[in-house]
Fold AB hydrolase-1 domain-containing protein.
Amino acid sequence: MRFVLALLLTVLPPAAAATDQVPREPVILVHGWTGAGSDMSAMRDAFAAAGYPAYVVDLPGQNNVVNALVIAALADSVRAQTGAGRVNLVGHSMGGLSTRYYLKHLGGAAKVRTFVSMGSPHYGYLPACLLGEQDGGQMCPFNPFLWDLDAGDDTPGDIAYTTLRSTKDAADVTRLDGGACFHEIAGVEHPDEPRSPLFIAAALAAVGGTCPGTFVELPIT
């Protein structure tokens, strides 16, 4: 736990929310594989301008379980600091897998209002099979981490789930089993998704309670 709390010192401070708007539940932004918190700066500023206390976490590495522990600790810290009952989570790329692990295995399903993933390889990314376990290999569709994550209900808890993908995403960014909003955006390169006005607008809509695409309910497998 000391390790996790120490890692939280790398969390970027929240962007100031607009003071003339009704207080909204906080938003935590999670960057992707080999990324950094600064990747989420444009999205953070957009949420702050819309009245959300917005936090960005710098993940410690490429292990989703360790990353999920950091997300869990930050979510608890933000809830205590703001008095919010729940938070909203937006994850890009592999950050979406870390976030889903928090929701499924670390009690996050009771503490989160909405979860938006952007370009996350929910059912795997074959080139990741060439990577080591601590270097992104958990994105491999044959990795036990992903098997466990995708077993049963992909959308646990009373959470509004949204998956966003670009037509240029190479990973298997498909609809989640269970009920979730799905929206495909044309022409945005994968690394550019967190700063794309189209992705930012879709994430804002989803966190605000509006599905930016189509709600799809799939059988749980």
